[in-house]
Amino acid sequence: MSTSRAAADAVVTGIGVVAPTGIGVEAHWQAVLAGKSGIGRITRFDPTSYPVRLAGQVPGFEAKEQVPNRLIPQTDHWTHMALAAAEAALADARVDPAGFGEYEMAVVTAGSSGGTEFGQREMERLYLNGPSWVSAYQSIAWFYAATTGQVSIRHGMRGPCGVFCTEQAGGIDAFGQARRLVRLGSRLVVSGGTDAPLCPYGLVAQLSNAKMSAVDDPDRAYLPFDADASGYIPGEGGAMMIVESAGSAAGRGAGPGYGRIAGYAAGFDPPPWSARPPALRRTIEGALRDAGLTPKAWTWSSPTRPASPGSTRRRRRR
Asked: Residue 115's CB: how many other CB atoms inside 10 A?
């Protein structure tokens, strides 16, 4: 690999997590190691009259402790969590945005539902009291790009900014775009995504697809890849990461970071009646080409027993 390309590689130097399994990287990672589930009964509203009553809800998140007071009434719970995760990721990367040019920093996030809780509240005011009761911030708080905008404004990031509305694949797509922006010259990209669909409006919108689990047992409600799988359940939270060019990270002494985004590709499966092959193989091959790799370039061997639990944690997190 050439020196110039290596310097333009995208590396992850900071992580911020706001998840049902915990707030913060360490809390989330310990939950993963312990096999702890974040599934429980919905408490953001009374779900008794709905067929789905369980969800992945972030415990103990208080917007007033994480977000500037002036932003709370202007934004949705979904954006509150993203602002908190972005702040944590910047701190983890030891990044002071003031040390970067404002056009050198970019923001790319992903989301699927937008500001549903904020939107429901304002629609209720409209129907019950009339237009004069609707907040002026309804025009932006529900919008799926609101989080990208708020993060960029808060930290003075005026480089290329965007949002992916690709639901489950959105987080991966956002990192692919972050890597692309780094190759195009951005020094730093805040990338990731959050969602917060836990309100009646958000839940009913998902119920229409008939793919949600109505099982009331938290241990049995969500069993992907299991013969007893009954569907998925809704969840809130997410993560934000700091993606930098390797040259920029090395220049400020950030070290190798958590890892490198080497290659990216996306694809869609063709219609069942077509003769085209499934997209998975084509997408993997595209990602390998994008990274300048071939399948034969990698070999796998079983890892040796780690010296200590701490060494295991560091290796897996990277």
From this structure: 27
Q: Point out the residues of the chain with pLDDT beneath 50.
A: 1-3, 303-318
Range of the domain at 283: 264-318
**Contact (CB, 8 A) for 202 and 143:** no
Residue 71 has a pLDDT of: 92
CATH number for position 60:
3.40.47.10
Position 156 scores a pLDDT of 96
Percentage helix, strand, coil, to 5, in the chain?
40, 15, 40
One DSSP character per residue, 173-222 reads: HHHHHHHHHHHTT-SEEEEEEEE---SHHHHHHHHTTS-B-----TTTS-
Is residue 276 located within the same domain as residue 133?
Answer: no
